[in-house]
Design goal:
This protein is α+β, with helices and mostly antiparallel strands. The chain is built from 14 helices and 48 strands. It has a 6-stranded antiparallel sheet with strand order 11-9-10-13-12-14.
């Protein structure tokens, strides 16, 4: 029987190789066992190192009572892994073996087991060290074995006799040993072997016993040679989750400025000291966040990282209160460390990670917790400790980095009167909501490499810690090494603006600089200044008396900046000629600077998806224009050279046909536009039926089909079959066919068929040329020709047609919305006129068969038009083209 102390973990010494067997080889039992040991060790190592250890799921106890007496302990089915790689599940015997030296079969297909009996358990077969005091050398702790009604024998007693339930703790134990081999009898001993016993025991112990198993009360005793052995204890079990109230989110108490008015009256004249006292009281009430430091240090001790010193942190914050301004930043720092703590506790439940668990932690047992515990997190119950392989979110690494950030925040709080007096105002895009990792690094931190590395885990993991934004961080544009403002780049995802560097400045200078930055960058917030002294004959709409404003707007709160669409409020105090900004607050809405009229308009109310951008007319000129659409869609608003345009080509296709509305500075307007999809159809000649004997009719059938997934039936169709300006409306049938019959069609003058496809303001022009193939006439043989009467072989020479095209070469939009092209042809008696557009966007042409052509519906662009004049008598013709430039 193997019951040696050194053998509690089979993974202490593992087999790393084995032999393959050769044909005809005599195999020693040691060689065959080496083969089994290797694969068993690999299987165990895979579980422990690549999966994890502890309670995976289930194995929850519940007590049942009858006549107020305990009648059973029901344990749900579950899975657990020991640090020796043993997979533990509840099981029942399903098949009892009838053969000697063959094990019974078990089933794990059970929902739970109800234990109704118990007896004192004696671990004499194994002498498991964790069950004995003095590092396994002393007496056994109190243990009771549980059994179901089917498993219990005469040694067990009813569980109703179990006393002192509040002092009982539940655990699973895998009783693992080798059964002694009896001498062989008979001829054949080949079916005999050393039986490996693995009995899963459900045990109870007392408080003293559980503390001994965990190792809290163990003192290492020297071996015979005087060396101090390793302390046998649960080296994995402690975890930050078991710290009292560790998962309680800690939040900084709000400072309500209105309390000054409520407690001392609206007629009281307040000073910077009164405002400062609000923040001093809030911080002293919690002793500058000492309780958060206590929890962080306990977590740090368990994880094995550096903690933070609260005493020095408190001293730094108290320095903020020695001057008239900057004291709000002390409050901000405490709020920041609490936000960091909030990020940590969200990750703690996922951070049970062990790369190389100590094999002696719980090699053959798993703790299931206090028997009568009603708390969700029981410190006497093993959690499941993930292998780093399963830690997809790197929760433990994130926790360690956040603790490092907490320490860096406490150490790098910056206080310097000279620094604040020399500071310049900066507006840094940030985030409104937590986590702090996604926000800009505030003004009051001394930015170091370590702080930047610890600020945002994802950026540091991607080697882009330098991309964090912050007051003391120089932001470099991609194409230059010169520092630039982050406001010059895309800030769509930033919902908040950190406004810093203004405290301690003259309020007029601060107000002017903030407004200049806001207007230049077109930022969405307003600015107000409040005087602690009552204002007399105040006509400045950007300034108000502190008491009146606070009474009217009790929601004022310091946030070291302002959210988009809010109002940034600075408070100043006048001492002599010194009017200094001493604090700042914000409101989540625009109030109460001058009410400017909001106007917005577009030149069109319907526009094609492929049209060029059109300009907005915005008032006020620095107003921020936004489309009222879903955040995932593009509403077509774009900025070019500081001006707002509506670009239909940017609009998401999901918005086609819908009315898009807009806001200016967050306020709704009456401006709207609808984008229609550009027609994209294909029109081809399907067939042509030429005149037959006795007929002068030619019929053409055209086939219309949609391209790019469009439905041709969604549009209207205008046709100019004779190419003379005589447009007719005719839509294709269900098959997309359109037919037209020509009469007395001359093969020498085949017209171009022109089609205009339209829909909701969009149009597509299609021309059909060379559609007529002259039928080949049958061959005629002439045998006799009589020239006696004479032959007139030729007609008279046609006149030469000269064109004199009169038109504006340059046309300015201010002259009107139309212009006329004039054509003259002296000397032709019966002229035919034909105008066509040969270049430029589609326009409307009126009088294409007359000498004068009227052009409308044009825009700034270059156009070309061609006039053809035909002598109806002789067929002679002449053409001339003119180019027109339309300017603004």
């Amino acid at each position: 029987m193997n019951n040696q102390l050194s053998d509690i973990s089979s993974l202490r010494n593992i087999s790393t190789q084995y032999r393959k067997f050769s044909k005809g080889q005599y195999i020693e039992y040691t060689q065959f066992n080496e083969f089994l040991d290797f694969f068993e060790d690999q299987d165990r190592l895979s579980r422990v190192m690549l999966q994890g250890v502890g309670v995976v799921c289930g194995l929850k106890p519940s007590l049942t009572y009858s006549n107020r007496l305990l009648s059973g302990i029901q344990l749900s089915q579950g899975v657990a892994l020991t640090t020796d790689g043993d997979l533990l599940t509840l099981n029942n015997t399903s098949v009892v073996s009838e053969e000697l030296y063959v094990s019974d079969l078990k089933t794990i297909k059970i929902e739970n087991k109800k234990y109704t009996h118990f007896k004192i358990y004696d671990n004499f077969k194994v002498h498991y060290p964790a069950f004995h005091v003095n590092n396994g050398r002393g007496s056994q702790v109190e243990l009771w074995e549980l059994a179901t009604a089917q498993e219990a024998n005469s040694d067990f007693q009813p569980i109703s006799n179990l006393s002192d339930l509040d002092d009982k703790y539940l655990l699973l134990y895998l009783e693992n040993y080798e059964k002694e081999v009896k001498p062989c009898r008979g001829v054949d001993c080949d079916n005999h072997g050393v039986q490996q016993i693995r009995n899963l025991k459900v045990l109870l112990t007392s408080a003293a016993g559980i503390n001994n198993i965990i190792g809290d009360n163990l003192l290492p005793l020297p071996d015979i040679d005087g060396t101090i052995p390793k302390k046998i204890k649960d080296l994995i079990h402690p975890h930050p989750l078991f710290i009292d109230k560790v998962l309680k989110a800690e939040k900084q108490e709000r400072v309500i400025v209105e309390r000054l008015i409520l407690e001392k009256g609206v007629d009281t004249q307040f000073t910077s000291s009164d405002v400062k006292e609000l923040y001093v009281a809030a911080l002293e009430k919690i002793n500058y966040g000492e309780f958060v430091f206590d929890k962080i240090n306990k977590i740090s001790e368990i994880i094995g990282v550096q903690g933070a010193d609260h005493a020095s942190f408190k001293n730094r914050l108290q320095e903020f209160f020695v001057q008239r301004f900057g004291f709000q930043y002390a409050y901000d720092v405490v709020k920041d460390v609490m936000d960091t703590y909030s990020e940590i506790i969200k990750l703690l439940p996922k951070s049970f990670t062990k790369g190389f668990p100590d094999l002696d932690s719980f090699p053959k047992h798993v703790l299931l917790g206090k028997l009568t515990s009603d708390i969700h997190l029981d410190s006497f119950r093993h959690q499941f400790y993930n292998s780093p392989v399963l830690d997809d979110e790197k929760a433990m690494e994130r926790v360690k980095m956040l603790i490092s950030r907490f320490v860096q925040q406490a150490q790098n709080v910056r206080f310097s009167i000279s620094y604040e007096e020399e500071a310049r105002i900066k507006i840094i895009p940030s985030q409104k909501l937590n986590p702090l990792s996604n926000k800009a690094v505030p003004f009051y931190y001394q930015v170091t490499g370590e702080l930047l590395k610890a600020w945002n885990f994802d950026k540091t993991s991607n080697r882009s810690a330098a991309d964090n934004l912050g007051y003391a961080i120089d932001f470099f544009s991609p194409n230059t090494q010169m520092p630039d403002s982050p406001l010059n780049f895309n800030i769509d995802k930033n919902s908040f603006y950190n406004i810093e560097g203004h405290q301690g400045m003259f309020y007029e200078d601060a107000l002017q600089q903030i407004k200049e930055i806001r207007d230049k960058q077109q930022l969405e917030f307003d600015v107000m200044v409040l005087s602690l002294e009552e204002l007399v004959d105040n006509k400045d709409l950007f300034k108000a008396y502190f008491n009146d404003y606070v009474e009217e707007h009790p929601g004022l709160e310091h946030k070291r900046g302002v959210e988009r669409g809010g109002t940034f409020v600075m408070v100043y105090e006048t001492i002599g000629r010194d009017s200094t900004v001493i604090a700042d607050f914000s409101l989540p809405y625009i109030c109460c600077t001058p009410k400017s009229v909001i106007k917005l308009s577009l030149p069109n109310t319907v526009i094609c998806a492929k049209s060029e951008p059109i300009p907005f007319t915005v008032f006020p000129t620095n107003g921020i224009v936004k489309a009222v659409v879903d955040a995932k869609l593009n509403g077509g608003v774009t900025v070019r050279n500081g001006l707002y345009f509506f670009d239909p080509q940017l609009v998401s296709p999901e918005l086609y046909g819908q009315e898009i509305t807009f806001t200016v500075n967050g306020k709704p307007t009456t401006c709207s536009i609808k984008v229609t999809s550009q027609p994209d159809v294909n029109i081809v000649v399907d067939s042509v039926y030429y005149p037959e004997a006795g007929s002068n009719a030619t019929t053409i059938i055209l086939k219309v089909s949609g391209k790019s997934g469009q439905n041709f039936a969604d549009y209207t169709y205008s046709w100019d079959f004779l190419d003379n300006g005589g447009w007719v409306t005719q839509n294709p049938d269900a098959k997309g066919l359109v037919s037209y019959t020509f009469y007395n069609l001359s093969p020498a003058k085949i017209p171009t068929i022109r089609i205009n496809v339209g829909g909701s303001g969009c149009s597509q022009s299609v021309n059909i040329n060379n559609w007529y193939d002259v039928p080949v006439a049958p061959s005629v043989v002439i045998n006799n020709i009589d020239f006696t009467g004479g032959v007139q072989c030729c007609e008279s020479i046609p006149p030469v047609i000269k064109l004199n095209l009169k038109s504006p070469q340059e046309f300015y939009l201010s002259q009107g919305n139309s212009f006329t092209l004039k054509g003259e042809n002296p000397g032709v008696q019966t002229p035919l006129y034909s105008w066509v557009q040969t270049y430029g966007p589609v326009v409307t042409l009126s009088g294409i068969t007359k000498p004068d052509l009227l052009v409308t519906d044009f825009r700034i662009e270059t156009y070309k038009f061609k006039l053809t004049v035909v002598d109806a008598d002789s067929g002679a013709f002449a053409t001339q083209e003119v180019e027109v430039h339309v300017y603004e």
